[in-house]
Amino acid sequence: MLHLIGTYLPRALRYIVWDPLWRMPERDKVLYLTFDDGPDPDATPQLLEIFEKHQAHATFFLRGDHAEQHPQIVRALTAAGHTIGNHTYSHASAWKVHHSEYAEELSRATEILNGLAGAPVRWMRPPFGKFTPRTLIWCKHAGQKLVMWDVLPCDFVAGITADQIARRTQRFMRAGSIVCLHDNHKSRQVTPAAMRELLPRLIDSGWTCAALPAEQPVPKESVPLLRSE
Predict the structure, then answer these.
(1) Catalytic residue among 3, 57, 99, 182
(2) CA max distance for the chain
(3) Catalytic residue among 36, 37, 40, 183
(4) Which of 100, 128, 179, 224 has the greatest count of CB atoms below 10 A from its CB?
């Protein structure tokens, strides 16, 4: 049931909260697989190998603290042509911390990721998919686009299988879909296995797995900084 809510609710919210990116404007068979919470020393290298084998690409929304611990994996992701995005420094929830603390989380992660990638990070995904109007203001000021999703296979749920993840992705995906997956300790046993199963099916069916553009031109707007109070 959670995967249905996590897929259909964003599809409805995109007509109400239009500023985040919920789905790419594609008409062709292009799918955007995204992974949150990494880099993970086990799951992320597996994903790198799988995507290289199938000449596919993805977007990895990285935690700043994990990037600090595994800088070589971050560099490997960018060297392989994948896009990296901001997932805060320590996986903070915008609904639980003060906006100034959350802004510091985003800024700290940005500094780390920019240094490792050698280029500005252009995408941001809020942990748990939770954001506030101030989050959107921060993103506009920083030149980052807040990215949500329109397919949530729930690879983080206990007991889920690789086959379920692959089948749910195929069932709900459409041209331009952004699929939210994870490379963390909860999903490391199933998500790479699901990608081994899924990618050959997609490619055989004429689909392309692409990363969000690393150089996406996100216009900066004149908005106020988030300040501590």
Answers:
(1) 182
(2) 55
(3) 36
(4) 179
